[in-house]
Task: structure prediction
Amino acid sequence: MLDFLTIYIATIIFIFGTVIGSFLNVLIYRLPIGLEFVKTNSMCTNCKHRLNWYDLFPLFSWIFLGGKCRYCKSKISARYPIVEALNGAFYVLIYLFLSGGNAIEGLNLTLVGYMIVFSCLIVTAWIDFEHQIIPDSMWISIFVGGLFIVADVVIKGEFTKEFIISKIIGLFAVSGFFFLIGMLSKGAWMGGGDVKFMAAAGFVLGWKAVIVSMFFGAFAGVIFAIGRKIVSKKEMRGIIPFGPFLAIGVCLCAFVGEAIFNWYLNMFI
Ligand SMILES: [Zn+2]
Result:
């Protein structure tokens, strides 16, 4: 059972997650078109009306405005509340997983590290899906998130050689394979963004979990491709970016990837 303190902290973490989520929405909108995202004021993307503080409440503003701009009544994408809620939910799940029944113990640098990683996964997935690019700032931030996790392990005195070796091999395990595919296909089947993204993810997850995440990602991509073919009546051509599905795979495997790897291995040995 969750004690009161855990629920209390989880609630604060959820609210914090939705606030960061609204910042992620800004990144998703502005990173691909190269707008400065610190100095510029928030505005409606349709009528360019400057938004007030009461228009910028995560989740609630969108709900109370019925998904429409207060000024020009144009529709505001459902992406905004989805990203905010998703980021809040991720933060809470990470916290609950790390706390393991001890409310205070879950508040550490590992939590910060995974928060950075999961937020970047959301942004990466969305931008790659819409624009077929993975911004450098995203895989660099994922790597930084990994450094937070390593720092926490060092502080706790739990640092081992196996731990860091797993992460260093993780840097190359999937990314090296992707790099090879990219080379052989002359960049047609695999882009540099995917290689760098999976290097950073491998550093966070370690080599076992990142390999599992690649299979999960490929599986999710195939499911999507088949689904799209069934749903769309006219022949859909054009490439499907791999990044969003890799991001889903990394999400699923961040905490259980290594266990899945060991379980799979044990079936044959
Ligand atoms: Zn407007």
Observations:
- The two ends are 37 Å apart (CA to CA).
- Residues 108-269 form one domain.
- The longest helix spans residues 4-30.
- Residues 150 and 164 are 8 Å apart (CA to CA).
